[in-house]
Amino acid sequence: MKILVTGGLGFIGSHTVVELQQKGFDVIIIDNLSNAGIEVLEGITAITGIAPEFEKLDLKNKVDVSDFFSRHSDIGGVIHFAASKAVGESVENPLLYYENNINTLVYVLQELSNKDNANFIFSSSCTVYGQADTLPITESAPVKPAESPYGNTKQIGEEIIRDTCHINNHLQAIALRYFNPIGSHPTAHIGELPIGVPQNLVPFITQTAIGMREQLAVFGNDYPTEDGTCIRDYIHVVDLAKAHVVALERLINKNNTENYEVFNLGTGTGSSVMEVIESFERVSGKKLNYRITDRRPGDVIAAYADTTKANKVLGWKAKSTLDDAMASAWKWEQKIRN
Ligand code: WQD
After folding, report:
1. What is the CATH number of the domain that holds 58?
2. Ligand 1, atom 3: closest residue by C-alpha
3. Ligand 1 near 29 CB (within 6 A)
4. Residue 194 located in a structural domain
């Protein structure tokens, strides 16, 4: 059985390809290389010893998507990562996000809807919860009006999949709502490669420490939290990747109880920005240069997962600690900059 991984050269996609190959799956990657370099293929191969099949293809091109599926009738599952994911960019250019994140999803689902049996894993995000009323956040927490077009594309994407599964019981789907993915593969052959100035905390920390950035700006320390900084659930990207394989196997083995299921993927532990900085300083032995600045618009105060459903139903649990993840991120940063 061959598994299609769209956006498979990206940060979470590439780590998931490694885990799929190490579980014995044949993988074919589609990526348009808009946010990832072809050299990631070498990184994956260096880890697993198996070069995944790869096709450069833009899923916005409906004809190309249809042609791909007609040439690969042996695809037994799809893990769909391909999407734009920068919150700030989505506010400035919403149509780019609606075209790239929604049209592509529709075209892939249209192809899967023609198959007798299709297994589909969707890359979603805890951003759908906005500022949850109750912490930790369970999958039954209400989906709040999105704070950004990016977040809205995840909400709309889930609704599109839910509606499609409702009328097509040949389509089995799971949406995985990620909390904050961080870190890199322990071999440092693959990792996070943000293009331009990193929007996310951890790559900004490691780029500051390596000397690429002058200083980290901590976006506010006047929040109603213990140390005044925002709290998030930082999950090691390898733990997250492993969850995708477990979810896919749930569908392949027909262990799912409904043909559309949702799981939160986090550690269940919240960490503040200051705690992340302290973790970095602990594992790297370096003092981080940072200053406190104003809050960033759109930031929620706190978000961390209730992992009961993923632990009990999916049979998956994050194993790595914050220090493990920060150490892997630092190892990767040092490798790619030297
Ligand atoms: C984490 C914390 C910032 C940068 C976003 C998306 C989410 C997912 C992960 C794609 C916040 C603070 C950050 C900096 C800082 N993306 N921070 N200085 O915003 O929780 O989630 O990325 O799937 O969908 O919403 O992650 O890493 O940007 O911020 O102080 O230079 O770090 O204020 O409290 P976020 P983040």
Report:
1. 3.40.50.720
2. 219
3. no
4. no
> Which domain range does residue 85 map to?
2-182+234-265
Q: From the CA of 200, how far away is ligand 1's center (Å)?
A: 5
**Mean pLDDT to the nearest integer, 222-248:** 98
Collapsed DSSP state (helix, strand, coil) of residue 194: coil
Q: How confident is the model at residue 285 (pLDDT cuts 50, 70, 90)?
A: very high
The closest-lying atom of ligand 1 relative to the alpha carbon of residue 293 is 30
Structure tokens at 263: 């799981």
Q: 108: Cβ–Cβ under 8 A, 6 or more apart, which residues?
A: 6, 59, 65, 78, 80, 120
Q: Which atom of ligand 1 is nearest to 123's Cα?
A: 23
| pTM for the whole structure | 0.98
Give the pair of three-digit tokens for residue 266.
């986090």
150 is catalytic: yes
pLDDT digits (tens, 9 = 90+) for 294-324: 999 999 999 999 999 999 999 999 999 999 9
Size (the chain), residues? 338
Pairing of strands 180-182, 234-236: parallel
% of the chain with per-residue pLDDT over 70: 100
Concatenating the DSSP letter of every residue in 123-136 gives: EEEGGGG-S-SSSS
Which one of the listed residues 107, 150, 223, 260 is annotated catalytic? 150
**Domain total in the chain:** 2
Which ipTM was obtained for this model?
0.97
